[in-house]
Design brief:
By secondary structure, this protein is α/β, with parallel strands linked by helices. It has helices spanning 7-20, 42-58, 79-93, 104-116, 149-161, 174-186, 205-214, 226-237, 255-261, 281-294, 300-318, 326-335, and strands at 28-35, 67-74, 97-99, 120-123, 140-142, 165-171, 190-197, 218-222, 245-249, 269-272, 346-347, 353-364, 370-382.
């Protein structure tokens, strides 16, 4: 006697068998790349994108050995534009990974919808406090730094240098506030004042006059993109460098700032997790090929974009292309089994980096170029201050 399953039962059985089938390797890795490519902060996103693209080229035009569908969108430094783009990545593109955002005020509005879908987001730049502690998330990774870390290194160095009075100026958005908090975390001296300026402010004449009247020994700034360029130009033009030492995080004394500011930056000290003079094989190749490809020295942003792509490449290889297996892919990312251009790198329990931080100084190199030289290490295997509040293991 032959038995025939009723259609609803047959359909149910077919669905169950499909669920039990092994996850197959994806034919194509889909990445949504959302970054700032225009306006005062555009140079930063361009460098992240260019560093990422160079890594893809080094990986043979693929990542993890599979084809790549990379969609790049300019967020225009507008949260509403970013939100619409992120929704398209999730709903239409079906991105396996989203990455690229430069600024915290763009990242924070889009993250909830990304993480709710268990889509991986890898930050190639901003490392906000919000997701470093209790809100840490298994699908959120930071391939750069926690926002307080680079300024914390400067705060430690300045304290050891014996500078007792510092004036703080930051851009008025989450990244700005977190950077100044980072400086204060390891600085043991007196904060003369703490001032926040509107995003995209370019005239600092009033701020400089106010600062000068308070006679600090040094000023520490966090003013990204064109803001920092204009501040440094105006600070120098006013002759304030004779009595006030300028202190900046590495992202305010990098190649994108050096090019428009020039010799006014000579002698400026800054802190960073990376330098183009780091002597390891991965970094030597990255720097040489970036300069050959784009005709300029790479910035910190470019190095972070490059490392982000290489991190993805390593994880896709580890899961043999099975990126649809989200848990396996996430674990492969957390393993961070790649050679970083910055040297030692691993993820903490909150999936922010554990890494070293260095002192750099702007000077002329052997070719007469104005650029950074690494002077020494300030923090070794540094862990951010929020990881202990994260419950992930």
């Amino acid at each position: 006697m032959k038995f025939r399953l009723a259609r609803p039962v047959a359909a149910l059985l077919a669905s169950a068998l499909a669920l039990c089938a092994p996850v197959q390797a994806a034919d194509t890795l889909r990445i949504g790349f959302l970054t700032t490519l225009s306006g005062p902060g555009g140079a930063l996103g361009v460098d992240i994108r260019d560093g990422f693209n160079l890594a893809v080229k080094h990986a043979g035009g693929k990542l993890g050995g599979i084809n790549l569908d990379l969609q790049v969108v300019d967020d225009q430094l507008k949260p509403d534009v970013a939100k619409q783009a992120a929704d398209r990545f999730l709903q239409q593109h079906k991105s396996h990974v989203i990455t690229g955002v430069v600024f915290t005020n763009i990242l924070l509005p889009i993250l909830p919808s990304v993480l709710e879908t268990k889509t991986v987001y890898i930050s190639p730049n901003t490392g906000p406090n919000d997701y470093a502690g209790p809100k840490c998330n298994p699908y959120f990774f930071v391939a750069s730094w926690q926002s307080e870390d680079i300024p914390s290194a400067m705060g430690k160095f300045v304290s050891e240098r014996g500078i007792k009075n510092v004036y703080l100026i930051g851009a008025n958005y989450p990244g700005g506030r977190e950077n100044l908090s980072g400086f204060k975390r390891l600085y043991k001296g007196n904060i003369v004042d703490e001032v926040y300026t509107p995003m995209n402010q370019l005239d600092f004449s009033v701020d400089l006059a106010t600062m000068q009247a308070k006679k600090p020994e040094a000023v520490f700034i966090f003013l990204p993109g064109g803001m920092g360029i204009n501040f440094i130009k105006q600070f120098t033009a006013a002759g304030l460098g004779k009595n006030i030492q300028l202190l900046v995080p590495g992202y305010s004394a990098d190649e994108d700032t050096i090019k428009p500011v020039g010799e006014a930056l000579l002698g400026t000290i800054n802190t960073s997790h990376w330098g183009h003079d780091f002597d390891n094989p991965q970094n030597r190749k990255f720097v040489a090929d970036f300069e050959k490809e784009y005709g300029r020295l790479p910035t910190m942003y470019a190095s972070q974009g490059y490392d982000t792509a290489m991190l993805i490449d390593s994880a896709v290889r580890k899961v043999k292309g099975n990126v649809e297996d989200k848990e396996a892919f996430r674990k492969a990312l957390k393993a961070a089994d790649f050679k970083s251009v910055r040297g030692a790198f691993k993820f903490n329990n909150n999936q922010y980096p554990i890494q070293d931080y260095y002192l750099r100084v702007v000077r002329k190199d052997e070719k007469g170029r104005i650029t950074n030289r690494t002077m020494g290490k300030i923090l070794t295997a540094h862990q951010d201050s929020f990881a202990s509040q994260c419950k992930m293991q």
